[in-house]
Amino acid sequence: MPLKDGSTVLLNTASRIRIKEDAEARRVTLLEGEAYFSVARDPRPFTVEVDGRRLRTTQAGFRVRKLGGSPVDVLVDRGRVDLAAPNQADVALGANTRLLLSDDRSEQPQLIAPEIVSRELSWREGKLAFEGETLSQAAETFARYSDIRIQIRDPELAREPVTGLFAANDPVGFSRAIARVFDATLEQQGDEVVLARNGAAH
């Protein structure tokens, strides 16, 4: 989504924003979901509001994620973003920095490796990257991108760690790969793909 100032906003699935731009400032509110902001240089500050907090920059590339009951997740991959809070000093986030917004506002930014930044932002190319998440967590992630649901009948299989890069819109292909790696059975039942092993399919 191009903005009038030359910035762009890339929305992940099931995401909503509100945009307000005037002569004084550029403002975006993330209502829900996940968005990547590529902010063009401009004399006016660019502000992203989420859950009553404000992220401000003049030029940067950063992701903001607000999903369910999870903490708001901010990831900066270039430039500088400042978290502004009333009666508190701004918290500066540089490149390759992550910040989880806590209720008590005691958060501190964490430096992360560039390869983790790339993995976190792989959804921009239609990919999902996993690095040790459980199969159950991976299935929940795929549910955001497809009407086909992955059901795991074996609790032990659901806890297996998953690593790899997969197409976000191909839960069936992902399930086939999982079945091969973990010696599981795969059965497609309408809009469900059922994974099981050790006789747990029924």
Report on the structure:
By secondary structure, the protein is mainly beta. The protein contains 4 helices and 16 strands. The strands form 3 sheets. Strands 1, 2, 3, 4, 5, 6, 7, 8, 9, 10 and 11 form an 11-stranded mixed sheet that branches. A 3-stranded mixed sheet has the order 13-16-15. A hairpin with an 8-residue loop joins strand 10 and strand 11.
Keywords:
mainly beta, 202 residues
Radius of gyration using CA atoms only: 19 Å
What series of H and E elements makes up the topology?
EEEEEEEEEEEHEHEHEHEE
Helix content: 10-25%
Average pLDDT metric: 91
Tell me the overall shape: elongated
Please give the largest β-sheet.
11 strands, mixed
Q: Give the N-terminus to C-terminus distance in angstroms.
A: 46 Å
In total, the number of strands is 16
What is this structure's SSE topology?
Blueprint: E1 8-11, E2 16-21, E3 26-39, E4 46-50, E5 53-57, E6 60-66, E7 72-79, E8 81-84, E9 91-93, E10 97-101, E11 110-111, H1 114-120, E12 127-134, H2 135-142, E13 149-152, H3 155-158, E14 161-167, H4 171-181, E15 185-189, E16 192-196
Parallel strand pairs: 3-4, 13-16
Antiparallel strand pairs: 1-3, 2-3, 3-6, 4-5, 5-8, 6-7, 7-10, 8-9, 10-11, 12-14, 15-16
